[in-house]
Amino acid sequence: MTIGILTSGGDCPGLNAVIRGAVIKGDRIHHESFVGIKDGWRGLVEDDIEPLPRYDVRGLSRLGGTILGTSRTNPFDHGGAARVREVMAGHEMTGLIAIGGEGTLTAARRLSDEGIPVVGVPKTIDNDLSATDYTFGFDTAVSIATESIDRLRTTAESHHRCMVVEVMGRHVGWIALHAGIASGAHAILIPEVDVSLEQICEWVEMARDRGRAPVVVVAEGFVPEGVEHVHAPRGLDAFGRPRLGGIGEQLAPALEEKTGIETRSATLGHLQRGGVPSAYDRVLATRFGTAAVDAVVDKQWGSMVSLIGTDIESVDLHSATTVLKTVPRERWDEAAILFG
Ligand code: F6P
């Protein structure tokens, strides 16, 4: 059996640990061989594929990024299942491990529906996939965001300024919620909850009146009350999803104008996806990798490995990709008690 592995969509810390876990277990326990597909679905449809022997994955679990490269190529724009089947046959590939987020796994699900033997592994810093309690990459992103907010707070305090910090997360507010709680933010703005500019100003002024430098954490997908569309000035990606970013820069001058408090904004951007994975993400990613290769050997096509509580389980790709895992209102309410 030759198993193909690809990493697709936005990278995130932990991808290499999945690759290592899958290849070592596949080699040692199942005596399978592997090929590495370059840059996600692009490498598959363009037949850019190389052997991935066990010695190539040594020492990988602590390495950020992905040794296979990634892209946001949509296979359905490049021949779809027919092309994928042809290339897989050329390499005598009997199964595929696709490591990706919502866009990648939706493509994997469609390919599986058309008979391609694929198993999914959920990754994303956004933590927005249903059917798994956590995705690896999220813990690292929250740690980076928290440390950055801590740093921004000291400069804001020196200058008696308000600081608006924009974090990633696409259409859900998990990174903002967790990093905001961890750093003691005075307001956390997420896509799931409507908040007016007046309310944000009230929290900012409350913090200022206590002698604090107000810190507002805003998720890139936040839409202020009364505004119709998410802030996405850079168009759509290959999966037709808006490219987000920039709401923090819009919010900062509006807050400054209404409160009179000098305000700066910082967008953390891709810093949240870079560098070494946290210990938690290395462990989760390694467990996902070893479970994924078991699922391939068992021919559990159309499934995804998933974390349920503390166990790794196998779930249907459909259940993972049809509904986004959003922040429940009560989770934000818990945090909002401490705003201002
Ligand atoms: O899905 C991960 C993510 O980092 C989102 O949080 C963000 O909106 C997007 O990817 C950024 O994508 P790109 O790397 O293509 O700019």
Briefly summarize what is shown.
The chain has 11 helices and 11 strands. The protein starts with a strand and ends with a helix. The chain is 39% helix and 17% strand.
Model description:
The chain is an alpha/beta fold and 340 residues long. It has eleven helices and eleven strands. It has helices at 15-28, 41-45, 80-90, 102-113, 138-159, 174-183, 197-209, 247-259, 279-297, 317-321, 329-336; strands at residues 2-7, 33-37, 49-51, 93-100, 118-122, 162-167, 187-189, 215-219, 263-267, 303-308, 311-316. The chain is elongated. The mean pLDDT is 97. The site of 6-O-phosphono-beta-D-fructofuranose has 11 residues, from loops. Residues 10, 101, 124-126, 168-170, 220, 244, 273 line the site of 6-O-phosphono-beta-D-fructofuranose (F6P).
Q: What is the H-and-E element order? A: EHEHEHEHEHEHEHEHEHEEHH
Shape: elongated
Mean pLDDT: 97
- Count every helix, treating DSSP H or I runs of 4 or more residues as helices: 11
Which sequence of strands runs across the widest sheet?
3-2-1-4-5-10-11
Largest sheet, if any? 7 strands, mixed
* First-last Cα distance: 59 Å
Ligands bound, unique: 6-O-phosphono-beta-D-fructofuranose
Helical proportion, percent range: 25-40%
Q: Please count the beta strands (DSSP E, at least 2 residues each).
A: 11
Sheet-strand content, in percent, reads 15-25%
- The low-confidence parts are none
Q: Using only CA atoms, what is the Rg? A: 21 Å
Decide which structural class fits the backbone.
Answer: alpha/beta
